[in-house]
Amino acid sequence: VQLQAFGGGLVQAGGSLRLSCAASGRTASFYAKGWFRQAPGKEREFVAAISRSFATTYYADSVKGRFTISRDNAKNTVALQMNSLKPEDTAVYYCAAVRNGNVQIGDYWGLGTQVTVSS
Q1: Cα separation, 88 vs 96, whole angstroms
Q2: Residues 6+ apart with CB under 8 A from 87
Q3: Residue 67, C-beta contacts closer than 8 angstroms, at least 6 positions apart
Q4: Residue 108 has pLDDT above 90, yes or no
Q5: pLDDT digits (tens, 9 = 90+) for 36-70
Q6: What's the whole-number mean pLDDT along residues 10-23?
Q7: What's the confidence (pLDDT) of residue 58?
Q8: How far is the C-alpha of 78 from the C-alpha of 20, rounded, in Å?
Q9: Rg (CA), the chain
Q10: What confidence score (pLDDT) does residue 119 get?
Q11: More confident residue, 30 or 18
Q12: How many Cα atoms occupy the beta-carbon half-sphere of 75 within 13 Å?
């Protein structure tokens, strides 16, 4: 499974960004998909995930109500719409193919994309 994330950038606090991730590989569609992030000096943390079959969504408490994850199974893509961004959302964001039984565990990872939120 290969994953490639797009859409990072610099935005002011209160603004929005949309991240996209393209997944490829014979087994890519078998996995749930998720987003994680890692801020400087911190461990990587779970942000959001969406299940493989029924598009059930999961969010970290810190992003609930602000971020929305979605997927297009036909195109094998997953998106993360980020609204009301805060400086503490600044991090490198990673797309991952995650386990259907535990969406906070990633099995395959894409290269990250930088998101910087200025105050």
Answers
A1: 21
A2: 13, 117, 118, 119
A3: 47, 48, 59, 80, 81, 82, 83
A4: yes
A5: 999 999 999 999 999 988 889 999 999 999 999 99
A6: 98
A7: 97
A8: 6
A9: 13
A10: 93
A11: 18
A12: 9
Q: Residue 73's pLDDT is what?
A: 86
Mean pLDDT of 95-112: 94
Q: How many residues does the chain have?
A: 119
Diameter over CA atoms, the chain: 42
Considering only CA atoms, which of 37, 41, 118 is closest in space to residue 80?
37
- The whole-number pLDDT of residue 29 equals 87
CA pair distance 58, 4, nearest whole angstrom: 21
The residue among 8, 10, 36, 13 whose CA lies nearest residue 85 is 13
* CB-CB contact of 113 with 92 (8 Å): yes
> How far is the CA of 101 from the CAs of 6, 8, 88, 113, in angstroms?
26, 29, 29, 26
50: left (phi over 0), alpha (psi -120 to 50) or beta: beta
